[in-house]
Design goal:
298 residues, mainly alpha, two-stranded antiparallel sheet, 2 strands, globular
């Protein structure tokens, strides 16, 4: 797998090359935040034709929040292309998206809403009887914000109910019950139970987004937002104590997951990328693709 490399003059007048000669490596290097364009689209389709499995894995590795780049928008662009050019294979991989990203990623693809509803309904049914439910309920659509999606999911979960209102009532109870079991931070915030929030359980993204709220500080500056509110002041104290323990090394503050430095000693960009794409974390993707290719479509 190679492409023609051309020499050109760089911005500082020196001679530079327009690529590495390997479209897979070129694509990986160019996949940076807010960098999607027609060139990347063409490059991705080129890789898809010559290295189909690698194209799928690279898409998921780009989204992977634990061992990849953690990029949602870039991933969405690639998935849309895969849904267009490899529809059956990509639909077969939809339920793996939450494993590498987030459940809400699935809402980026309305063209496969039927499949998304089925995936979420299946997961919610399993979570009801599980001691360790997934985060599906946390991101499940709610009435008011995502009323249309909530109705569709309620209909998928409770078809035996004749009235939509009854389906939605049972859906609300199911989602609320699972979120209580998950000890979801946002649920406690909405209920104004800030003092009940356990700092060590707050996910890194949530912590970064709501830091000012947890410390009961104004959005601009460090003044107190609700100094008269006992609940908010207790929450502030809990977080300050937790941060002090983290500085002392006796507690952990959740944050964004960083990529492993594995592969730093390899000699070429291709070897480094090959090491990442061949990681066993992505075996489920390759295995699923292999299985689906053996299934005959009538």
């Amino acid at each position: 797998m190679s492409s023609k490399v051309q020499q050109k003059e760089g911005v500082k007048g020196s001679d530079v090359y327009n690529g590495t000669g390997n479209p897979l490596v070129d694509l990986s290097v160019l996949l940076v935040r807010d960098g999607w364009n027609k060139q990347l689209e063409a490059l991705f389709l080129e890789v898809l034709e010559v290295a189909e499995d690698d194209a799928f894995v690279l898409a998921f590795q780009t989204r992977d929040i634990r061992g990849g780049k953690g990029e949602r928008k870039l991933f969405s662009h690639m998935v849309r292309l895969l849904l267009t050019h490899r529809t059956r294979l990509m639909i077969g991989l939809l339920n793996l998206i939450p494993e590498y990203g987030c459940w809400r990623d699935l809402f980026e693809f309305p063209e496969v809403r039927f499949h998304v509803n089925a995936i979420m309904a299946k997961q919610l049914r399993e979570d009801v009887s599980s001691d360790k439910p997934s985060l599906c309920a946390k991101w499940a659509p709610r009435e008011g914000k995502d009323t249309y999606l909530a109705k569709k999911l309620a209909m998928e979960l409770f078809p035996e109910e004749a009235k939509l209102s009854q389906r939605l009532k049972r859906y609300r109870h199911l989602v609320a019950g699972l979120n209580r079991q998950l000890d979801t931070t946002e649920i406690k915030m909405c209920a104004n139970h800030f003092a009940d929030i356990e700092p060590s359980h707050v996910p890194g993204v949530c912590l970064s987004k709501h830091m000012k709220a947890f410390l009961n500080e104004t959005v601009k500056g460090h003044g107190l937002r609700h100094p008269e509110n006992i609940d908010r002041m207790e929450c502030r104290q809990h977080f300050k104590e937790h941060f002090a323990k983290a500085l002392a090394g006796t507690a952990k503050v959740n944050g964004a997951v960083t990529r492993s430095e594995e592969g730093a000693k390899v000699q070429t960009p291709f070897e480094a990328l090959r090491l990442q794409l061949d990681d066993k974390r992505y075996n489920p993707i390759r295995d699923r693709l292999s299985q689906m290719r053996t299934i005959r479509v009538p």
